[in-house]
Design brief:
heterodimer; A: about 230 residues; alpha/beta; six-stranded mixed β-sheet; three-stranded antiparallel β-sheet; 5 helices; 9 strands; about 30% helix; disordered N terminus; B: about 240 residues; mainly alpha; about 0% strand
């Protein structure tokens, strides 16, 4: 992912309770506004989704972003990634960024391997780096036998595994996950959290959109979005 | 930029050619247009007071087959891949390289479609000026790649977009040269290409104004298609 503004400024941070101290701030979003306009006159209406939303993520942190349906979680995530323009506010993010969207954005007629090749090109990985990274991810997520399958031939869970693997293949500094486990079976769900925690411990900053209360204990910190603003953190 | 666009463009081309129905339509639509649509076009021309001869109608129908297929495939290139293309662009490839790959794929598909249409025309009636006819048919395809991609970029729904392509196609086809006695349709996007194709079908050369007109519209269509693919792959506002 390309940087939106200047790279995130380094910041001093207090050690996390009972664990390794988190690293510098790698993502900071402040005062982000976003509205959408729908329909045509006279039924045109404006929907304010984000109203001054702000958050920070440090390296080595697993941070949750929660909120009710329509509270603006996915919109904020897409603004941070660079898929959506913001109306106001500042976003500082690292250059090497991974994004796993809620709904897999994939090409139905291409194979799993072809997806890895395309994204390796986008991330600037050479063939050796790609193979090493892809081999590890296929093993971790256990879907190596589907390498030659087209997306249209995969189950929802396997598509989601590919969706997640694509976001991880360049070992990003910051990983943005938008409900990445929908469609995962229980085993894969648990493996997903192990993978995330391992990467967090290795210094990766992770921001994960979630709406399940049971997951809150797995997170280091959490932001709650209410009507487009952070109402609890 | 060129090498980075080549690998994605091969994948994007493959994506279309892996759809079995597309492969069937690549053959079926030129056959349908040249054998059946041509006579319908001729009947309409008579009804509208036009002078389109049977041989000209057959020749121009090959162009319409290439236009129809290329336009709809370009539309679906944009509408069915919008999310994945934007993700690839944001991942580091950038909207220009994604757009370059898409246009290369659209042109490869358009030329394949044109080749099928040309061969169908050749087998059906023979062509006086085969090279002129081949260039004119390919121009029909290129012009509709521009229209299809533009509609795909501006209209979100694939259904609404495809209906719009069909509407424009119908207006264009039924106001093409020699279709009516009226001269009020003097400028349509495919006018010069249609003149060339009609002349080539009858074994005649064409005035340089038609060659120039066709080249200008084809180049403009490639630019429009590039802008449309870029629009679909960029950061959304």
């Amino acid at each position: 992912m390309t940087p939106d503004a200047a790279s995130a400024p380094a910041a001093e941070s207090a050690p996390a309770e009972g664990g390794e101290p988190p690293g510098p701030v790698i993502l900071s979003a402040s005062g982000v506004d976003k509205s959408f306009h729908h329909g045509i006159w006279p039924r045109r209406r404006r929907i304010d989704v984000l109203r001054g939303a702000s958050l920070e993520v440090r390296g080595g942190e697993l941070v949750g972003l929660v909120g009710e349906n329509g509270s603006g979680k996915s919109t904020l995530m897409q603004i941070v990634v660079g898929l959506l323009k913001r109306d106001a506010g500042e976003v500082h993010r690292p250059k090497r960024l991974g994004y796993c969207p809620q709904v897999p954005m994939l090409w139905e007629k291409l194979t799993v391997d072809e997806h890895f090749q395309l994204f390796a090109l986008a991330y600037g990985l050479d063939e050796e780096q790609r193979e090493r990274s892809v081999g590890g991810l296929l093993e971790e997520l256990q879907f190596g036998k589907y390498r030659s399958y087209r997306i249209e031939e995969l189950s929802g869970g396997t598509r989601q595994k590919l969706n997640l693997a694509i976001s991880l293949m360049h070992e990003p500094e910051l990983l943005l996950l938008d409900e990445p486990y929908s469609g995962f079976d229980w085993e894969t769900y648990l493996r997903f959290w192990e993978m995330s925690q391992r990467r967090r411990d290795a210094g990766m900053g992770i921001l994960i959109v979630s709406h399940l209360l049971a997951e809150r204990e797995r997170l280091d910190r959490m932001y709650e979005l209410c009507e487009g603003q952070v109402c609890n953190c | 930029m060129l090498s980075a666009a080549l690998a994605p463009s091969l994948d994007f081309t493959r994506e279309h050619l892996r759809a079995p129905l597309t492969l069937v339509l690549l053959v079926a639509i030129p056959v349908f247009f040249v054998l059946i649509f041509a006579s319908v076009l001729g009947d309409f021309a008579k009804a509208l007071g036009g002078t389109l001869a049977a041989q000209s109608a057959t020749a121009i129908s090959a162009g319409w087959a290439a236009a129809f297929l290329s336009g709809t495939l370009a539309l679906f290139q944009v509408s069915s891949s919008r999310g994945a293309d934007r993700r690839l662009s944001a991942a580091g490839l950038g909207p220009w390289r994604v757009a370059s790959a898409r246009i290369a794929a659209a042109l490869a598909i358009g030329l394949t479609v044109s080749a099928f249409a040309f061969v169908t025309l050749w087998l059906r009636s023979g062509i006086g000026h085969p090279l002129h006819a081949a260039v004119a048919i390919a121009s029909f395809a290129v012009i509709y790649i521009g229209l299809g991609a533009l509609i795909g970029a501006l209209v979100k729904g694939a259904l609404e977009g495809s209906l719009l392509v069909v509407l424009l196609f119908s207006l264009d086809a039924f106001s093409s040269p020699e279709m009516t006695s009226s001269s009020s349709f003097a400028w349509t996007p495919t006018r010069s290409a249609a003149n060339l194709l009609i002349d080539a079908g009858g074994g005649q050369g064409s005035p340089s104004a038609d060659w120039l007109g066709m080249a200008v519209v084809a180049v403009a269509s490639v630019a429009v298609a590039m802008a449309a693919f870029w629009l679909a792959a960029r950061t959304r506002s």
